[in-house]
Structures are given as structure tokens and as C-alpha cells.
Design brief:
It is a single chain. This protein has 280 residues and is α/β, with parallel strands linked by helices. The chain is built from eleven helices and eight strands. The protein has a single domain, classed as Rossmann fold (3-Layer(aba) Sandwich), CATH 3.40.50. The longest helix is centred in the N-terminal third of the chain and has 21 residues.
Length: 280
């Protein structure tokens, strides 16, 4: 089945019962970035969260900017294969656009649990023989590694960039989260890189409002989440050679001197820890 046919099937499945579909992380994120691929349930939850934490759109933009800088840096360094898990709804500055602008022979595989995200990705990628999107769950890493779409485009005996940006906080169980990343990294060749960003506990003060926001998210979405500390985020990169400047706020990871940085004076408002590690 080609990309167009897969897209039509996925969109048909996603369209069934749209009004009753619960909110998801991918579509809430899309709404916060100003996207159009979201449903009323997503918009309602996003507005309630933003009312309690007005800097949430800043968090989304800062993460997206970090992802772009990391991809550009690694593409400039010669990495030509990228596996983006939890890729979400396509938006401006997609991974394949950035990587293939630098090196047209770059191969990119997007992975997401949301059928709408996968369908939209396949529509954008129609005709792009070096990129695809599959539906799979981070919590089942072997399913991702064995997927025919992944194996068709990525050679695991060569370095791969594993992108897990702003998604691990949707795996609340620590053991499950750390094990999933460890299994994925173990499958990569030396010279591969892991790119991680994660919701920061330190960015959200302990308060009744924070508890209410967590309850809202858990009750009204299909993807409840949890924040983790800087040290907990560093554990995902354990055993890897950390690139400078280590694990920092997303807007502090190699900022572009030619671009303005949101919340530069209050970096915790970027809301997430970020780091990149190289497998030796």
C-alpha cells in the first residue's frame, strides 16, 4: 500500500466519531503552536491549561525550536538517518524538511500513536521516498524497531538520530519509560545520537493549581502525563557522551545568535529539559 492509500485509510479511521474523540497530546500541542489539526475537545483542554499556565504556548514553541536546532546541528555533522518517536501533528519546521534541506539523501521515519498525526504526516510525505510515518507506541519499542516501514528506510548498522522530544512525560511509569529508551538506544550503531526533551518538574511550582491541571489532563485526554526533574531527565541519556551544554532548558540548548529567544530572562518558562547524547 502506498503513502496515499495509507493516508486515506488512516484519515477515514480518524474521522469516525471525531466529535466524541478525547483530546490527545499531539493535537493539544498542535493547538498551542497555532495549528489547525485539532478538535473541539483538544481546544477545550488546551484553553483550560493555558488559563492556569499562560506560558504553555511558550513551552511548545521553545521545544519546537530546540528540536529544529538539534536536527540542524546533527545534519550538519553528517547524520543522515532520523527516527522521530512521538512526532505529533506536522507543523512548520518538520524534521524531514530541515534534514533534507541540508542533505537531500536524509532518511526520516516519524512514529506516533495518534492516527490523525500519522495520517497528516503521510499526506505531507506523499511522493517523498526517503520519509514515511508509522503508527506505533513508544511503550512497545520492539514493535517500532521491527516495523517494515522503519527497516525499509533506516539501516541500523549505520548511525541514527533518535528523536524523543516532548513525549517521555506521557509515559508516567519510570521503569517503563527508562526501559523503552534503553531498548531503543541498544539497537543503535555507535555514532548514533539521542535527542530528548521532557516536561520539567522545576518549571511548575507545587501548588493546588498544578494539581488541578494534572487532574484535568488525566481526566480529559487519552495521554495522561507526568513531569520529571533535571536529574531524572539526565537518566534517559545515561551512558551516552553528552553534547555541550548538557541537559539544560530547551531555550538554552545552543540558541541561535541570529534568532530571538523567548523567556531568555526566565528560562524555566521554556518548561522542559533538553539534551543530546552520542553513543560511543
Amino acid at each position: 500500500m502506498d503513502n496515499a492509500a495509507m493516508n486515506n485509510a488512516a484519515m477515514n479511521n480518524a474521522a469516525q466519531g471525531t466529535t466524541a474523540r478525547p483530546a490527545t497530546a499531539a493535537r493539544i500541542y498542535d493547538y498551542c503552536l497555532g495549528g489547525i489539526h485539532n478538535f473541539p475537545a483538544d481546544q477545550e483542554v488546551a484553553r483550560k491549561l493555558i488559563a492556569q499556565f499562560p506560558f504553555i504556548p511558550t513551552v511548545a514553541r521553545a521545544n519546537r525550536a530546540f528540536l529544529g536546532r538539534a536536527v540542524r546541528h546533527l545534519a550538519d555533522a553528517g547524520l543522515r538517518q532520523l527516527l522521530d518517536i512521538g512526532s505529533g501533528i506536522p507543523t512548520e519546521g518538520n524534521v524531514h524538511e530541515i534534514a533534507q534541506a541540508i542533505a537531500p539523501d536524509s532518511h526520516v521515519v516519524y512514529v506516533d500513536i495518534d492516527p490523525v498525526a500519522v495520517a497528516e504526516s503521510l499526506e505531507i510525505l506523499n511522493g517523498n521516498k526517503r520519509a514515511t510515518a508509522i503508527r506505533a507506541d513508544l511503550r512497545s519499542p520492539q514493535t517500532i524497531l521491527d516495523h517494515p516501514g522503519v527497516r525499509r528506510l533506516l539501516a541500523f548498522d549505520q548511525p541514527i538520530v533518535l528523536l524523543i522530544a516532548s513525549v517521555l512525560h506521557f509515559v508516567p511509569d519510570d521503569t517503563q519509560a527508562y526501559d523503552a529508551v534503553a531498548q531503543l538506544v541498544a539497537a543503535l550503531a555507535p555514532g548514533s545520537h539521542l535527542v530528548v526533551s521532557h516536561a520539567a518538574t522545576e518549571s511548575f511550582p507545587i501548588s493546588e493549581e498544578r494539581a488541578k491541571a494534572a487532574d484535568l489532563y488525566q481526566q480529559q485526554t487519552a495521554t495522561p502525563g507526568v513531569s520529571r526533574t533535571r536529574s531524572q531527565t539526565q537518566q534517559f541519556l545515561a551512558g551516552l557522551d553528552l553534547l555541550d551544554p548538557g541537559v539544560v532548558w530547551t531555550n538554552q540548548w545552543r540558541p541561535d545568535p541570529d534568532e530571538p529567544v523567548e523567556s531568555a530572562d526566565e528560562p524555566h518558562h521554556s518548561g522542559e529539559w533538553a539534551g543530546v547524547g552520542r553513543k560511543m
